[in-house]
């Protein structure tokens, strides 16, 4: 490998590294600091299923690594600061001389509790039954994400969306390292069968009548294939999927359009796709994959299909690499809030403008 190729590889790894959340400089406290009342922050409960390996976490509590394992179940408790800003995943900052996580200031994974399978689904049924519409969402994270950050992100989304139902995340064995893109891709493929089995069980046992499936980045590969498999085994699943949301999917655009979407929208429609031309992580992924466009990257064209509502977020302000906008941008969270909360389609949601694309349309956020 010559010098220019080395530099290109390092650049791609650097940009793709932004797919996960920023690393936290210090461990989280296992309990609120002395003198802090729980009223100083909200605590969000989120359920999880994971096929990561079990390992001892900080101070002996439950933790999960980046290796493959059998599926385990449980719930997490995550703090949300009272002065939380919508879209923020507040973390310690060295610039602010913050050297440890504080639930009063930061989104912190406070506790992880393992549950037997039966107890897990029983607890979800209780949460679903207590909701107004018997709702649940299942979130599948992307590349370079640890179990801890998956828990924090799912809790932040549930809080910011004001979600009334059972929030659930599926955490596959991402290594949580920028340089592990290829390994993460292999583990994502390996997890497809496990997620398909989990989805089948979830629809059988959760009693949720309206289920929202949300996937980000590489997680879209897993969710799309797993959902297709689960619906092949039980076509009735599609009747209870209220919405499928693919956010910045790191999937070959042609495969997404010609293979994946036709098999999903035949049973679930419409499906929502958030994409952007300013997503540097997907631009890097395009280079890694021989120049073939990704479904979440509109730089070389927008994926527009029957049964798919494509939302172009190119005009939305984003962070460092423009890849996590689905959960850290107020405009997009607000759009998802109305999509999930009211079921309003793109043509009836404030802040979107229609764009003609030959015989079809897609939508953009207004400038």
TrEMBL record:
Signal sequence coordinates: 1-28
SUPFAM superfamilies xref list: alpha/beta-Hydrolases
Domain of life: Bacteria
One GO MF term attached to the UniProt entry: hydrolase activity
Pfam families for the chain: DUF900
PANTHER family associated with the record: ABC TRANSMEMBRANE TYPE-1 DOMAIN-CONTAINING PROTEIN, TRANSMEMBRANE PROTEIN
Keywords: Hydrolase, Signal
Keyword RNA-binding: no
Name this protein carries in UniProt: Alpha/beta fold hydrolase
